[in-house]
Write a structure and sequence with these properties.
Largest sheet: 4 strands, antiparallel
Number of strands: 6
Strand order of the largest sheet: 4-5-1-6
């Protein structure tokens, strides 16, 4: 079994968790659900009817979309750590990471402010839109609506095995430390496995887009190319175990893609196939 240098990871990375809560404006209507079952002659509760209290309110939709985008960004910029939603991020990119997180938090609350500004008007409009489904009691008072949203994140150090502040005897302490170290080794292994999966997924996607068939070529997107180059930058700092294979993959992938021009690849099948061949060789060489 591969053993990782836990001490070096504790000094080169930190843990971070993010929780974003958004009021969806959706409400289960038990009466309508029962009416539908009765109308369809079901013998059991066959389904539930959820109504959208804020149907068509763009300001609330914008908050939901931004929250989803932030969760995706957070997942991309971090690696998994354990099974409780905690992630790990390297200290080398921590300053930029925290700055981006703070900017996103401010944007989130700006969007909430905008929604608060139209909330009362939106309720009035909902009375017309929902017709008989409208129930004023289902809408929180405007002074409480902000409590329905949340944007919280916490940074913490990667823990060390020696910090067991209990008196359980030498044998018990040794067993706890062994369990702790094993869990930490498993978390590190999972984080690096996730990193390799990202590398292979992006490289294979780019290879597929570069294919040249008899009747059609793959559709090549700048976003895929940019994503691959961005991943190269992440690999430099998120190689938590200083894996030489991962570092070599980063160098080879960056060298392959550096200076590649999307317009040229779309027009020149020869250049296209040359890049694809290099990527396929990398995939074969570094399959994990």
């Amino acid at each position: 079994m591969t053993t990782f240098n836990v001490a070096s990871i504790s000094s080169s990375a930190v843990l971070v968790s993010l929780n974003i809560s958004v009021w969806t404006g959706r409400k289960l209507d038990k009466q309508v659900s029962a009416e539908i079952d009765a109308d369809k002659h079901t013998r059991v509760r066959a389904g539930n009817y959820h109504k959208n209290l804020m149907a068509g309110v763009k300001e609330l939709e914008d908050i939901g979309k931004f929250a989803a985008d932030t969760r995706n960004w957070f997942a991309y910029r971090t690696l998994p750590w354990g099974n409780e939603g905690t992630k790990i991020v390297d200290t080398a990119s921590l300053f930029d990471f925290k700055a981006e997180l703070a900017t996103r938090e401010q944007t989130f609350w700006d969007l909430v402010d905008t929604f608060e500004g139209v909330y009362t008007t939106a309720i009035q409009a909902a009375q017309f839109k929902l017709g008989a489904l409208f129930n004023a009691d289902e809408y929180p008072d405007v002074q409480f609506i902000r409590e329905k949203f949340g944007f919280r994140y916490v940074f913490s150090p990667v823990p060390e095995a020696g910090d067991f502040r209990v008196d359980i005897g030498a044998q018990g302490l040794a067993e706890l430390q062994d369990q702790f170290n094993q869990a930490k080794q498993d978390a590190i292994a999972q984080a690096m496995k996730d990193m390799w999966s990202r590398v292979m997924e992006v490289t294979e996607r780019l290879s597929r887009q570069l294919r040249v068939g008899k009747d059609e070529k793959g559709k090549l997107y700048q976003s895929t190319l940019d994503g691959a180059l961005e991943l190269c930058g992440m690999l430099k700092t998120m190689n938590l175990t200083n894996d030489p294979q991962m570092e070599q993959m980063r160098k080879d992938l960056q060298m392959t893609l550096q200076g590649v021009d999307l317009k040229e690849l779309k027009q020149d099948d020869g250049a296209r196939l040359a890049v694809k061949q290099e990527l396929d060789e990398l995939i074969a060489k570094f399959t994990f």
